[in-house]
Amino acid sequence: MPALSKPKYEAYAKLLAQGIAQAVAYAEAGFKGGRSSASRLATNENIVARVAELRAQADAPAGTEDRPQGRPSGYMPEYAEQAAKLCLLGATDDEMADFFGIHRATLYRWKLDHEDFCDAIKSAKAHADERVERSLYQKATGYEVTEEQAIKIKVAQHEEEVEVVQVRKHIPADTTAAIFWLKNRRKDDWRDKTEVEHRHTFADMSDDELDKELEQAVSGKEGQTAH
C-alpha cells in the first residue's frame, strides 16, 4: 500500500513500526493529546495496515522486498463468499490472510476497498458469535440431547441380542458457564468486587478519566474568565 495521505499519520505509523511507544510516537508525529488519544489512533485500520506492512518490509530478507510471495494479492469478487465461509468456521484475520496467501495488511486494505468483502466478513462473524452465544446459554442453563445406546435383550434362555435405542438425556447446567454469562450480561450484580464510585486521587483514574477531568477544568476556567 502507498504511504498514508496524511503526513502525521504516516509519521505515526512509521514510529509505531519501529517499536516506539504509542504516546511517544504520537507526540513525535506532531499530535497533541494524551495516551488515550494515541491509543485510539493506533487502532485506526489505515494505521494498523500501514504498521503491519512496514514491519513486514523490515523483516523481509535483503533483496526480497519486491519479489511476489504466495498467491497474487489482487482482490477477486469470489473472495467475499470464501471469507464468509472461513469466518463461519471461526477463522481469525490472520488465518484468512494465510488462506488467501497475503499479508494481514493486505486483508485490511481489501476490507477498506471492497464493501462486499467487508460486509461478508462482518455478517459471518456476527452469525458465528450468535451460534457461540446460543451454545453458551444452553450450557449455562442445561439442555437435553438424544443419544443412541446399545442394550441387551434376552430372546431365549441362553441367548441375547443387542439393540440400539434412542435415549433422551439431560445435560445439567454448568456453573462456570452460568457465572461467565451473568458477569457479562449483568455486570452490576455479578462483578467480583464493588468498585468505588467516587475516586479522590488522580493516581486512581484511567487515561480517559484524566482527559475528561482536564477538559472540564479547562472549560470551567474559561467560563470564569468570560465572567
UniProtKB/TrEMBL annotation:
Gene3D superfamilies: Homeodomain-like
Superkingdom of origin organism: Bacteria
Region annotation Disordered: where it falls in the sequence: 204-227
Protein name, UniProt field: Terminase
Species annotation: Aminobacter aganoensis
Source taxonomy: Bacteria, Pseudomonadati, Pseudomonadota, Alphaproteobacteria, Hyphomicrobiales
